[in-house]
Amino acid sequence: MVGKNKLETEKISTLLIEFSVPAMIGMFVNAVYNIVDRIFIGNTPGIGSLGLAAASITYPITLVMIAFGLMVGVGGSTRFSISLGRKETEKAQHYLGNGVALAIIMGLSFTILGNIFIEPILRNIGASDAVLPYATDYLSIILYGAVLQCLAMCMNNFSRADGNPRISMISMLIGAGFNIVFDYILIVRLGWGMKGAAYATIGGQFLSVIWQLAYFTGNRSNVRLVLGNMKLKITYVREILTTGIPAFLLQIANSALNFIINASLVVYGGDVAISVAGIVTSAVTLIIMSISGLTQGLQPIVSYNTGADRIDRVKQALKLASIVGFIITTTGFLVIQLFPEFVVRLFNQEPEVVALGIKAIRIWTIAFPLVGLQIVWSNYFQAIGEVRLASFLNLARQLVFLVPLILILSSIFGLYGIYAAVPLADLLAFLVSFFFIRKRFPKSKILI
After folding, report:
1. Which 3 state secondary structure label does DSSP give 272?
2. Residue 50 DSSP label
3. Counting CB atoms within 10 angstroms of each CB, which of 122, 192, 342, 387 has the fewest?
4. What are the CA-CA distances from residue 378 to residues 113, 308, 375, 396, 401 (Å)?
5. Per-residue pLDDT, 146
């Protein structure tokens, strides 16, 4: 396996830059093009805040699609990396083939079931009569691209694990570039509205998948995608799915959380509050996706060196990633707290939305610097295959703490109770992750 030993021998800081920077750029750009959708939608006459509300309402469905793509991508690539660390190349080939096959099956299932039940789904997740037409226009098209969404998420993880993080970055840059350009063409120039945003999104995903397939079926990859290895085998399927459960649960928790937040916002603030939540989550997601890129770059380094029994290198990688994660979220916190009106006005100019948005985004991000550390630490346990603990830590913020806090505080303080629940959950999730990472490394200076 030419080029693989560098994961065991190259300087950790060099490896983290090589693997994480492309992933961070790719995930950042991926977040940007989703945000650009909302910027175009929110500033288009005749759509505005109702279009933003529709994008917010449909977001939990998108997160569920991402969850399945990440489950096979993160699960498969983790087993893939560990196998390469153990020099078990044949196993790595099967993890790749079975992962791609599972992504296709899951995407097709979404397309069929989602379009059959689209209206009751949207009604049940909070779409009002005013928002429903916009949400239906958008989601019905996005669902037809579910296979592309799942494949892109899956194969981006495998190309990083194959030792070529730039392939994943270029894949996301291609998709993002197409999406941004065609957002302008389809929404602004042709006036296609929500449908235009959806077509631009799946067009970008299609190009990303083509790029990844060209890589894995060509001569550039270290481990090639072979049709025969796509035949599902229960052993590989079980290991992929069980290892990927933490990543899956994190996205499902995000989806459930968005549903609960939207349902609470309907009660306490209506469509304007949902529009504001869409703006806030878009801004926060831009930073979180950068951390996600960092952890995706960290994963093959930790997984490979765990398989090779190089725990000293695992500690070095985790410490460096923790510092970088803290810096990223702290920088995001400062920008949001100092320039909240600028951030909100990027998405919408309506006075009512801007006024509420400034207050919401400041409260929402009070504890944001801690989020980077919590994400890095929980993903460490994912990378070493400790599924149960990683699952718990990934769920701690969204479901274990945030959901109860939203329900309790909203009943006492109304709309602002929903916003205040977020930093409290961030703090509690950080403390729990701190406990487990300190327990794992009691004598090591993993922490800042």
Report:
1. helix
2. H
3. 342
4. 32, 21, 5, 10, 15
5. 94
> For residue 404, what pLDDT is reported?
93
Average pLDDT over every residue of 261-286: 85
Burial 391-410, CB ≥16 within 10 A → b, else e: bbbbbbbbbbbbbebbeebb
The mean per-residue pLDDT over the stretch 220-234 comes to: 92
Q: Residue 56 burial by CB count (10 A; 0-12/13-18/19+): exposed, middle or buried? A: buried
Res 187 pLDDT > 90: no
Asked if 24 and 288 count as a contact pair (C-beta separation under 8 A), the reply is: no
Q: Mapping DSSP to helix (H, G, I), strand (E, B) and coil, where does residue 447 land?
A: coil
**DSSP for 329-371, written as a single string:** HHHHHHHHHH-HHHHHHTT---HHHHHHHHHHHHHHTTTTHHH
Q: And the tokens for 282?
A: 């878009």
Q: What average pLDDT does this structure show over 342-356? A: 90
Let me know how many helices (H) and strands (E) the chain has, helices first.
18, 0
- What pLDDT sits at residue 40? 81
- Computed over every residue of the chain, the mean pLDDT equals 88
What's the angle, vertex CA 363, arms to CA 359 and CA 365, rounded to 5? 125
Closest CA to 373 of 313, 424, 328, 317: 328
Q: Are 245 and 393 in contact (CB under 8 A)?
A: no
DSSP string, 309-333: T-HHHHHHHHHHHHHHHHHHHHHHH
> Any long-range contacts for 319-322 (C-beta under 8 Å, 24+ apart)?
319/444, 319/445, 319/446, 320/12, 320/13, 320/16, 321/16, 321/20, 321/294, 321/295, 321/376, 322/373, 322/376, 322/377, 322/446, 322/447, 322/448
Query: Residue 406's pLDDT is what?
Result: 93
Integer-rounded Cα radius of gyration of the chain: 21
Largest CA distance in the chain: 61
Residue among 361, 281, 335, 322 nearest 440 (CA): 322
Cβ proximity of 181 and 38 under 8 Å: no
